[in-house]
Amino acid sequence: MPAPLKRRSSVLWLIVVASASLAPCIELRAQDNSNWPLAWAQWHNRTRDWGGIRTNLSDKGLDLGVLYTQDVAANPVGGLNQSLTYGARLEGMAKLDFDKIFGIKGSSLHYIMYQGLGQGLSQEVIGNDFGVTQIFSSDILAIANLSLQQKLYHDQIYISAGRLAVGDIFARDDTFAYYLNGALNSTPGQLLINQPTFTTYPFNIWGLAGTYTFPDNQYIGLGVYDASVDDLNNAENGFNFRFEPKGDVLMVGQVGVNPGKDDTSKYLPGHYQIGAFYNTSRVDVLGTTTETREGNWGAYAIARQMIYQEKDLQGLSLWGLVTIAPQQAINTQPFGVSGGLFYQGLLPNRDNDVTAGAFILGFYSDHLQGQSYELVFEATHRYQFADWSYLTLDFQYVVNPAGNDDIPDAWVFGTEFSVKF
Q1: Which of 51, 55, 132, 400 is the most buried (most CB within 10 A)?
Q2: Gene3D superfamilies annotated for this entry (predicted)?
Q3: H or E element in which residue 212 lies
Q4: CB 179 within 8 A of CB 114
Q5: What is the DSSP letter of 136?
Q6: Which CATH number fits the domain 10-420, given the four candidates 3.10.450.50, 3.30.870.10, 1.10.3720.10, 2.40.160.180?
């Protein structure tokens, strides 16, 4: 990522926060095709309705929100150095409901800004590629989303255009948010290492994307995005509206199905998706500064399935993913595989807590001498204090940081705390 801009003045940030005073729980993120118990739409606010102010604003078509999330992590063993780091993100969100304002059914404008704080343990200390803290997103004030969204045909059609994260729709499963590692930050990290413009929230780029959901919970998604790395939202310290398309585009397609999404379904909840992408840009050949190749493609598959259900969303689920980007001359990690499990309600009288484990594995290109694979094992437990706040305790073991045998394996202990005020 570009060099971060130093923190803006407190006055500027107070203006941003003041303009995003919280409102009722609404869906402020892109449409989610998974079966996820803690989506934005299901979060309540810590400070509730403020004497009816939020409800009044919402009735007029303006919904607002603020979220604070922080990661604290330390590696007492391994890595390039040993240290403790703090990283956080404060987000202010606004939604204009054009149905209530102008009578345009299913239409809305979404705007999200964030202030990144602190630093990342992987980037600054360990030296590995799968960032061990997911919330760190550079110490800048930046735009996370600016998009027009439209739902049509009984909400079966969803279209979004503007500054988008590719991972809002494609190659995502919100289950990954249970983990701290950034390689499971809704979108597989192996994709992002190979394709910087395959952005994941809060990083975004100009694009047009949409989905069509069939009555039986199958869906198809298509998206076209600006493929210029220079046009990423943080290329100019967080306020980049450059739109200078040079004919380079990233095209993504995906099909999926959500068995068990309906309460009346005979199947347990699951989510299955297969997707592929093609980038028309010229890409530097690894290890050279003069040779390039035109065009780059890849594919992915993600599966999640509950295999044991106590009641509702309580029970045990398994998940797995595979990524491929076969052109070894231009892709840092041509092959990746990850998998894990999570159990909601494992502890007695803690029905909303989640206990989870995972591994993340990425194989480096044969063109990168001295780099073989990076492997991360992670175990985590999320204490869901309320529907507006949680605390996660996390342990990770990083094997072969950056695929380099010369960097000692690292032990990482971390926490994540989040609250929606």
Answers
A1: 132
A2: Carbohydrate-selective porin OprB
A3: strand 205-213
A4: no
A5: -
A6: 2.40.160.180
